Amino acid sequence: MNEDKKGLQEFKIEGKELYRKEGVILQVAKDDDLYSGTLTVTETKHGVFISWEKGDIQQSVKVKSDESAFCVGSPPDSLEWAVIANSAHQTTPKDRVKFNRNALDSPAVKFSSDLEDRQLKLTAELGEVRSYRLADDGNRVTLLMRDGTTHNTLIFLDEGPEDFLKTFTGYMSVRKSATDSNLYLLTDKKTAALDQSLSELNLFDRPNGETVWRAIGEIQRDPYAAGLTILSKVADRLLFSPLEKEYRPEDEMAELLQGEAVGNTLDCHGEGEGSDNWQLVNNSRRSLLKSLDVGTRSVPLCQLDWELHINEDGIVEDVPELLEKIFKGGVEASIRSDVWKFLLGFYQWHHTTEVRETNRKARVEEYYRMKLQWKSMSEDQQNRFAAFRERKTQIEKDIGRTDRNHPYFQGDNNPNVALMEEILMTYVMYNFDLGYVQGMSDLLSPLLYVMKNEVDAFWCFVGFMDRVASNFEFDQGGMKYQLAQLTLVLKYLDLSFYNYLDCKESGNLFFCFRWLLIWFKREFNYTDTMKLWEVLWTKKPCKNFHLLLCVALLDSEKSTIMESKYGFTEILKHVNDMSHRINLNEMLCKAEGIYNFLKKDPNVPDEVLNLLGIEPDNTNCDKSVILNGKAKSLPVPINGHAGERQRHGTESSNGSSSLNHSSSVEVLSEAEGNLFEDAIVGNLM
Fold it and tell me: Are 23 and 13 in contact, with CB atoms under 8 Å apart?
C-alpha cells in the first residue's frame, strides 16, 4: 500500500497541453480557505487529465469569519461514523452495511473526503468526471466524479471558465440537466451516440425518469405482477402503435409503466345505477417538492430583543413569539449562552431570577457530588468495575480527536479538553444506564465552547441528551426508527427518488445515519452547527423537523445522484462529500417550505402527519380512495372489462408495514461486520 501511494504521488502528467490558466482559485470546502494556482488540461496517451497545482508564493484567504471557518468534528484522519460499503460483491445488499465507529483505517475514509491527499491538489481524468456544477455567478465550477466524490470548487476570475469547459466538448458529450439548471452531465461520445440511436427507435414516446424508476421499484417488490403489466403495455405499444412518429399526451405516456402513485385521486363516473360503464381519471403526479413555497430566514435574535422579553422579575414573556424568532434567525453569539440554558431546560421560562439562582446552586452542588463519586474511586475499585473502565477508556480516546482543530480545544495539555473528559465522566455517573457512547463528545464540545463553564455545560448537555438519548441505544433501535420515519416522509414526497435509491440498494437511507446521530454536526462549520441546533431546539414549526431537513438535503442532491446514475457506493461517497458544502439557510428555507406544503396537502398519510405532529388545514380528500393512510388509484371497470391486467398490492408496498419490517435498516453484528470490513480492505489492497 505504501508503494502504491508513493507511485501515485510521483505520477506526472505529460502530453499535449490543451488549456492552461494561472490564477485559478481553489476553495477548500472544509475550512473555506482560498488558494491561487495553475489549472491545466493535458491530453496524454492514457487519456485527458485535469490538474490544479498551488502556486509557489501566496497567502491563503478565509472566505468567512474566523469563527465560521473552524472545522467541526474530528480531524480528517479520524472520520468516525464513516459509511462502509462492501466492495467484495458486485452489488451490495441493502442490509449489508454498517457504520464503523472506530474508522481510523476505514476504507471509506480513504475513498471519501480524504482532504490530506487532495485539498491542495486536484487531479482528475476527464473520462472519470460524471458531471460538473456551475454556480449561478458563472465563475465557480465543481467537478463531480463517477465514483461519487466531489472535488473542491474552482473559482475563475476575469475571463471565467468558458474556455476551460470548452475543452470538455472535444472529448465528451455535454448536456444540461433537465431538472437542475446548474448541473451539466458528461457522457462518452460513443455512449451518447448509442443513446441517441435507441431514442430514435421511439419505444417510449417521451422520456419519463420517474415512471421508469417507479416501474423498477415495482419489479423489485413483485416481479411477476409488475413484469406482466409492463410487458403487456410494451407489446401494445410495439404492435399497435402507428408507424409515423407520434406522441401521446404525457399523462397517457406515464401510464405505460406506472406503478402505485402516492396521493392520486380517483373520480368514478357511471351512466346509471348498476352500469358497467366506468371512467378512471388518474392524476399521477411527480415529486411533490418541485413547486414548494420555500420559507424565508430572518436576522438573529439580538440582545435588545431578548431583554425586551424579560420582565422586571426575570420571567421570560411571550415565549411562543420568542421561539418563532429563534427558529427564523437563530441567536446572536453575545446572548447564546443565556438563551441556550432556557432552550435546553437548564432554566425554566416562567421562573424568576431568584428562583433560577436558587435552582442553579442546587445543580452546582449535585454536579460536584456526582463528580466526586468517580474522582474518589480508587484504582482497586476500578479494577473490579469493568463497565466503568470501558467507558472511561472510550472517553479518553474520543476527547483526543474531537474538535482538535478548533482553537478552544487545540494543542497538547489543553485544559478545555480535560474539562470535556470530566463532564463526560460525570454524565456516566448521572446516567449509568446509558453511560457514554461514541459520538456524545461531538454534542458536548459546542456546548462547552459556548458556556465556558463546566457546570452550565454539563446541565445543558443533560438537556440535549434527554432529546437524543435514543440515538445512542446499544441496539441502535432509535436510529432504525428514525430512518424508518424518514423513509415514510421521503416516499410520500418523492416516490420516484425513493424508488431510485431502493433500486441502488440504498432504500434503507443508511447514508443519512451520521446526519441523524449527531444532528448534522459533521456537515457544517461551527457557526452553522450552533445556529442549526438552536433552531431545532425550538421544536418549531413541528416535531421531528430535522427529518424535513434531511429531505431538503436529499432533494438538493437528487439531480446529481439520479442523472449521474450513482449506485450504492457512489451515493455513500457523494453524501459523505457533502460535508461543509451545504448552504444552511437555503436548506432551512426548503425544509420549512416542505412543512408548509404538508400542512396544506389534504392527501398526506396519517403516519406522516403523526410523526411530524402536524394538524392539517384540510383533511378532505374528495372522491379519493384512502388505503393505509394514502390516496391511491384503483382499477375501474370500463365497458365490462373490469379486472383485466389488475395489479395486486404487495406487503412491501404497504406504507404502514414499513415500521413492522425493519430488515431494510438492519445493522451487521460485530462478527459479521469485521468479516465485512476485512473483505473490503482486502479488495482495496
Answer: no
- What is the per-residue pLDDT across 130-161, written as a single tens digit (0 to 9) for each? 889 898 888 889 998 888 888 888 999 878 88
Q: Is 53 helix (H, G, I), strand (E, B) or coil?
A: strand
Q: Calculate the alpha carbon distances from 521 to 3, 394, 509 in Å.
A: 35, 20, 18
Cα–Cα distance for residue pair 616/599, rounded to 1 Å: 5
CA-CA distance, 439 to 436, in Å (whole number)?
9
Segment (H or E) for 628: none
Radius of gyration of the chain from Cα atoms? 28
What amino acid occupies position 50? Answer: I
CB 552 within 8 A of CB 591: yes
- The CA-CA-CA angle for residues 572, 574, 577, to 5°, reads 110
Pairwise CA distance, residues 110 & 130, whole Å: 20
Could you tell me if 99 and 81 are in contact, meaning their C-beta atoms sit under 8 angstroms apart?
A: yes
Strand, coil or helix: what is 266? strand
User: What is the pLDDT, as a whole number, of residue 193?
Assistant: 58
Rounded to an integer, what distance in angstroms lies between the CA atom of residue 569 and that of residue 684?
A: 13
- In this structure, which amino acid lies at residue 667? V
Q: Which three cell numbers stand for residue 430?
A: 448521572
> Helix or strand or coil: residue 66?
helix
Q: What is the pLDDT of residue 474?
A: 87
CA distances from 276 to 279, 625, 636 (A): 10, 19, 9
Tens of pLDDT, residue by residue over 61-112, are: 554 444 443 433 333 333 444 444 444 444 444 343 444 444 333 333 333 3
The DSSP-derived string for 369-389 is HHHHHHHT--HHHHHT-HHHH
3-state secondary structure of 599: helix
* Contact (CB, 8 A) for 655 and 488: yes
Predicted TM-score (pTM) of the model is 0.69
Asked if pLDDT for residue 655 goes beyond 80, the answer is no
Residues 6+ positions from 311 with CB-CB distance below 8 Å: 317
Residue 377's Cβ-count burial label (10 Å; 0-12, 13-18, 19+) is: middle
Distance, in Å, from the CA atom of 210 to the CA atom of 285, rounded to the nearest integer, reads: 10
- With CA atoms as reference, report the closest residue to 183 among 225, 130, 231: 130
Count of helix runs (H) and strand runs (E) in the chain: 27, 16
- DSSP strand pairing (47-54 vs 121-125): antiparallel
Please say whether the beta carbons of 572 and 622 come within 8 A.
no
**Counting beta carbons within 10 angstroms of the beta carbon of residue 349, is it exposed (0 to 12), middle (13 to 18) or buried (19 or more)?**
middle
CA angle 590, 149, 218 (to 5 degrees): 65
CA distance 135 to 156: 11
Contacts of 552 (CB under 8 A, 6+ apart): 587, 588, 590, 591, 594
Measure the CA–CA gap between 274 and 69, rounded to whole angstroms.
72
Determine if the peptide bond prior to 541 is cis (ω within 30°): yes
For residues 401 and 420, the answer to whether their CB atoms sit within 8 Å is no
